[in-house]
Amino acid sequence: MGKIITIGREFGSGGREVGKRLSDELGIAYYDNEIITEIAKRTELAEGYVQHVMENGPTALMPITIGRTFYMGADPVMEQNNAIYREQSLLVQELAENSDCVIVGRSADYILRDKKPLRLFIYADMESRMERCRKRAPEQEHFTDKELRRHIQDVDKRRSKYYQFFTGQTWGEKLNYDLCINTSGANIEDLVKVIAKLVK
Fold this sequence. Notes:
This protein has 200 residues and is of the alpha/beta class. It is built from nine helices and five strands; from the N terminus they run E-H-E-H-H-H-H-E-H-E-H-H-E-H. The protein has a five-stranded parallel β-sheet, sandwiched between helices. Keywords: Kinase, Transferase. This is Cytidylate kinase.
């Protein structure tokens, strides 16, 4: 089995940077937003819509295991959501079959559980996350501290809801990961070098 690394992350914790740097350090593929683009192609749905569904979770609290035919004609929106989830699962499995890789988010730790990937979860304290968000924010974004804190919490809440709906597991629960990494005040470049040594 090759190197398959999945990364779950709190918003603003630097998880995406960890993933990209780790893939560069190991010389393996990196997948993140590319997954959304490919799912949009496969489902013939607008990329913005796919991203909205994957960021905001299902529109109804129905288990993913409910069959496709149940919604056919009755709830086309839920049917589209289920199509997105099915394609996500298939695509993540294909990517892991094709090459060594780092996959950020997309419930990849659960989807690839039979392949025994190295499952990372990246987190940080709120102050560090707010600071990181401000450094990477577009010029036109002007959140107050209160607004930014609420935004971070809202994104995490949506990720948690999506993950739980799709996997039946608790997002961020340490038992679901092999390594939980606190990036509060840390130099991510140095952290990645340590992680890369573990993987090698």
